[in-house]
Amino acid sequence: MSILEDLKNGIVHFAGSLRMTPIQATTWFLCWSAWTLASLQFYLLPFTLTNLAKYLHVEQSKISEANTTAMLSRSIGAVIFGIASDQYGRKIPLLIDLVLLAVFTLCSGFVKTYGQLIGTRLLFGVAYGGVYGLIMAACLEATPRRARGIVAGLTQQGFAAGYMLASGFHLAMSNYVWQDLYWLGAALTAPVFLFRAFLPSINTSTIEDDGIAAGDLEARVIIGGKLSFYKKLKYVLRYHFPALVYMILLSACFNTMGHGSFDLYPTFLTTQRKLTIREETWVTILLQSGGISGAMVGGYLGNRFSLKWVPFCFAIFAGPFLPLYALPTKWNLLGLGAFFMQFGYGGAIGNLGNIFQQICPHPGMRAAFGGVAYNLGNAISAIAPTIETKLGEQFPTKGGTPDYAKTQLILVGICLGLLIICLGLMPLKRLNEDWDIEDPNAEIPHAGDQRTGGHELDSGFQKGSQPEALHIENAPKT
């Protein structure tokens, strides 16, 4: 009876954690929509990989290199739009970024040569890289503390939702030419752009758990725009550089496993497993549904219990399902393995947005810190799809098709092991639950008298002993 009562209380607590005002919920939905749209546009290339290779008369591995180019250039966009949104507000930089995403996606449908494809995807990568840090900072600063686990998890998995939508459009438009997918992806930018243009900025400072409005304060004041970005950057690099390095490595593990497990997966399903487009779509939907549901559950549990050990356990959970994810020949078994493997991965990465906000040393540069660290990790992971493609072509099956199953299992297995190690080494003392009550315009940020208590549960990287290095975890208690 007590188990049923605990389950009931858990469900009630889960539902109650999503309680927020309409403007908070709308802001969250906008941020999710922007990240989902950008991810949809990014994942159009894997779904048209075979068509593009035939159209441009190149090998499929060359088309994978175009996606690698986009992943490498994302860090540039993260720097540009991260700084802009941290200094001038979240709204205008996002609107500019959406326009650029639409333009470069549209141009991708008009390419005639391989060089043009590389150029358009490189520029698209710059625009795509500007989205993550901006929207993750915007949605988490706008929502109550109790909701941030689920909010961060579902927002993070906007890339899974974008992947799923790309798969659905690929099925629905299978009778059309491949260019139409890119033109549709560009057109879908319009409603998200208008949504952001007419939605008022929330500008909240969540001093209380439910969040309180910041009134008539300027957007620049709320996010720390009155302090020069150079001073924030100098503070972070001088006293908290190890935190940045750690987050880049953690992001690299997450993203290499993610891109390694599903960028090439549609090609693997159709070329090696010989699935129809309909069957491939069903497997893809199951795979990404697992990731989305896992992120929601994992994000909630991580926010409630531990941002270190919850994702650690979810990553371990994913391991046993790797063989079922790649080795079966029937679509239903592949879908089963893909769902549970991605459920574990989603439960782990669903905490990443929250980790970025809490480990960021200065509250006035959360968009830039999260965006740059996330996309530098992505740059490290950029080679994953190309490695899988080239190794698959180099070591074909007996039937002559590339052995993508073997290469995916090896790469994803290695990345999962590294991810578990990296999560186990997370410096909990660096996590700061009170980032939302620190002054983002202070050159040396700390909560001072408003301190309500952050994590001091584990040893972390040693910070400098200078007074200027004061941060939440070593601020004097009152």
Structural features, described:
It comes from Phialocephala subalpina. It is a multi-pass membrane protein. Residues 27-430 form the Major facilitator superfamily (MFS) profile domain. By secondary structure, this protein is mainly α. It has helices spanning 2-16, 22-47, 49-56, 60-88, 91-108, 114-129, 131-142, 148-156, 158-172, 179-187, 189-198, 219-223, 229-239, 241-262, 265-272, 277-304, 309-318, 322-326, 331-349, 352-359, 366-381, 384-394, 404-424, and strands spanning 204-205, 212-213. A two-stranded antiparallel ribbon has the order 1-2. A hairpin with a 6-residue loop joins β1 (204-205) and β2 (212-213). The radius of gyration is 22 Å and the shape is globular.
What topology emerges from the helices and strands here?
Layout lengths: L1 H15 L5 H26 L1 H8 L3 H29 L2 H18 L5 H16 L1 H12 L5 H9 L1 H15 L6 H9 L1 H10 L5 E2 L6 E2 L5 H5 L5 H11 L1 H22 L2 H8 L4 H28 L4 H10 L3 H5 L4 H19 L2 H8 L6 H16 L2 H11 L9 H21 L54
Helix pairs in contact: 2-7, 2-8, 2-9, 2-10, 2-11, 3-4, 4-5, 4-6, 4-7, 4-21, 4-22, 5-6, 5-10, 5-11, 7-21, 8-16, 9-16, 14-21, 14-23, 15-16, 16-17, 16-19, 17-19, 17-23, 22-23
Descriptive labels:
mainly alpha, Growth Hormone, Chain: A, two-stranded antiparallel sheet, globular, disordered C terminus
